[in-house]
């Protein structure tokens, strides 16, 4: 089995782009990634791609070129990008292919997502009575967590404040203006205890990554960014997930715990070795809980982490250095790959004003999505 | 009056939710599964008394569909209620001011009018409200 490297990255800015469909944003990102790697589409031996709501990824061959390669579509909720990357990683690691692409894109209408109960194996009354909103789940998960571990609303606000500050320095971010703590705390309450500025919004964007075997990567001669681990896990018994009419009394771990542990084991490193991390931050509380679920701190320590600024640029472990979902918005199919894109930019030392660490060596990414799956990567320069 | 769905709850004082007990593992589920999966479960009525496990307030009108509630929209509280020894169920919360909701507070199941259908029939759903001493 070969080592796997990321040799090209491309992004279509996140936010709202009325003049381009989601698919076109994916194609834009694919071309940027090829340009970054100094390659052409005909050099790709395969692709994995996906969007949740913006069409079939494999149709982009009509724009990129009819080269006959296998192009596998992935549809895996918020982990669509992570799953596409996992597919591409496994294809190269197996030795079957030398170079290929993972691409994710999306375009969602404004406002909360509007799932259909039947698509989730749920009865109609669950949606009719107004209990089928992702926002409610996030609010109830963090409310419970706050009560168990003493996390305060101020800490939730600090997460959002950091996100918008990082976003203001990120050219692919959607929200580019810093927002102060008081404005965040006093903005419209969406789903208690989470205010408007503590939630990400559905948005648009596209990201593509080109992966290569060690041999191919060395031939290309660019900075060697190695994928030390790429894992995907689904939920174990007792995890608390979105759209659950009931929960078992015996509570358990989450898919994140499993994916994280597997990634650290695969990479042979621990949380203390990581220099910066991108963690799923659908809302402020998610980042807080995912800090602990991924092993970076113990439950409750986030209160001190945020107060001391340890997850800011230049801190002990900078988290969501491009502003995360809070500042970039959430195009479901693209978010997981955006995190990896940002990690590559940081590892290459190309992040400019938002360079979070000087000469970072290890960067971590984590996505989590419905109905309970998680994808983690660890990159090394 | 019409229940919002069949086999969801039974009326009474107090009313009770209908769950299922897996015939082999004994695991309790809610709601009672439908279709082919249902045969795996013995229908049971769940305790009407529980403790608030977590909660939030729905401040804006959910998208319709799937939401099919009364107009104009009024914010409502919802939460998870732990029924000791059985299961934690998600429910609308009623009869408690939003600012007095507290994790751990005791609650009792109740039925309440949810909406009126075009045929004029009132549709009823379940909710948890202030704890009541019941038989």
Describe the structure.
- The complex is a heterodimer of chains A (381) and B (135).
- Helix content of chain A is 35%, strand content 20%.
- Chain A is an alpha/beta fold.
- A nine-stranded mixed β-sheet of chain A has the order 3-2-4-7-1-8-12-11-10. In chain A, strands 5-6 form a two-stranded antiparallel sheet.
- In chain A, helix 3 crosses helix 13.
- The longest helix of chain A is centred in the N-terminal third of the chain and has 16 residues.
- The radius of gyration of chain A is 19 Å and the shape is globular.
- Chain A starts with a strand and ends with a strand.
- Chain B has one domain.
- Chain B has no helices and ten strands.
- Chain B has a five-stranded mixed β-barrel with strand order 6-7-8-10-9.
- Chain B is globular and about 45 Å long.
- Classes of the chains: A alpha/beta (381), B mainly beta (135).
- At the A-B interface, helix 4, helix 5, strand 5 and strand 9 of A face strand 6, strand 7 and strand 8 of B.
How many DSSP E strands of chain B?
Answer: 10
Query: Most extensive chain contact?
Result: A-B, 36 and 40 residues
Output the helix-strand order of chain A. EHEHEHEHHHHEEEHEEHEHHHHEE
Which of globular, elongated, flat, extended, rod-shaped describes the shape of chain B? globular
Assembly level: heterodimer
Give start-end ranges of low-pLDDT stretches of chain B.
Answer: none
- State the CATH class of chain A: Alpha Beta
Return the string of H and E elements of chain B: EEEEEEEEEE
Could you estimate the helical fraction of the residues of chain B in percent? under 10%
Structural class of chain A: alpha/beta
Largest sheet of chain A: 9 strands, mixed
What is the total domain count of chain B?
1
**How many strand elements of chain A?**
12
């Amino acid at each position: 089995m070969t080592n796997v490297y990321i040799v090209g990255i491309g992004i279509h800015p996140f936010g709202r782009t009325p003049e381009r469909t989601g698919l076109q944003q994916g194609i834009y990102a694919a071309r940027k990634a090829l340009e970054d790697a100094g390659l052409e589409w005909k050099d790709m031996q395969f692709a994995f791609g996906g969007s949740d709501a913006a069409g079939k990824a494999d149709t982009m061959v009509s724009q990129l070129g009819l080269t006959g390669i296998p192009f596998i579509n992935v549809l895996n909720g918020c982990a669509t990008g992570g799953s596409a990357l996992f597919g591409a990683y496994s294809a190269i690691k197996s030795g079957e292919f030398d170079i290929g692409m993972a691409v994710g894109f999306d375009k969602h209408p404004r406002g909360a997502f509007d799932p259909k109960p039947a698509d989730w194996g749920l009865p109609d009354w669950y949606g009719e009575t107004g209990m089928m909103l992702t926002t409610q789940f996030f609010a109830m998960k963090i409310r419970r967590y706050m009560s168990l571990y003493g996390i305060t609303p101020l800490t939730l606000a600090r997460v959002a404040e950091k996100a918008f500050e990082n976003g203001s320095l990120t050219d692919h971010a959607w929200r580019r203006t810093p927002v102060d703590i008081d404005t965040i705390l006093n903005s419209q309450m969406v789903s208690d205890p989470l205010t408007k500025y503590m939630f990400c919004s559905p948005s648009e964007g596209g990201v593509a990554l080109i992966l290569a075997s060690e041999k191919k990567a060395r031939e290309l001669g660019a900075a060697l960014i190695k994928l030390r681990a790429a894992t995907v896990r689904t939920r174990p018994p007792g995890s608390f997930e979105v759209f659950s009419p009931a929960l078992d009394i015996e509570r358990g771990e989450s898919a994140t715990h499993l994916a994280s542990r597997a990634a650290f084991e695969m990479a042979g490193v621990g949380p203390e070795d990581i220099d910066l991390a991108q963690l799923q931050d659908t809302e402020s509380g998610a980042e807080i809980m995912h800090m602990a679920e991924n092993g970076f701190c113990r439950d409750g320590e986030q209160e001190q982490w945020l107060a001391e600024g340890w997850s800011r640029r230049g801190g002990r472990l900078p988290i969501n250095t491009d502003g995360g979902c809070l500042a970039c918005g959430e195009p479901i199919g693209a978010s997981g790959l955006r995190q990896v894109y940002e990690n590559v930019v940081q590892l290459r030392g190309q992040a400019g004003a938002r360079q979070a660490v000087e000469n970072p060596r290890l960067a971590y990414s984590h996505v989590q999505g419905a109905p309970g799956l998680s994808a983690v990567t660890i990159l090394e320069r | 009056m019409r229940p919002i769905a069949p086999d969801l709850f039974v009326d009474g004082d107090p009313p009770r939710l209908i769950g299922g007990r897996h015939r082999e593992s004994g695991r309790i589920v809610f709601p009672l599964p439908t279709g082919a999966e249902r045969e795996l479960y013995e229908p049971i009525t769940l305790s009407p008394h529980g403790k608030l496990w977590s909660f939030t307030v729905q401040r804006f009108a959910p998208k319709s569909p799937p939401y099919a509630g009364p107009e104009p929209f009024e914010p409502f509280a919802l939460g998870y209620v732990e029924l000791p020894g059985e299961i934690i169920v998600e429910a609308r919360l009623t009869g408690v001011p939003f600012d007095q909701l507290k994790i751990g507070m005791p609650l009792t199941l109740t039925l309440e009018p949810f909406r009126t259908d075009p045929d004029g029939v009132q549709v009823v759903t379940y909710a948890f409200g202030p704890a009541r001493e019941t038989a």
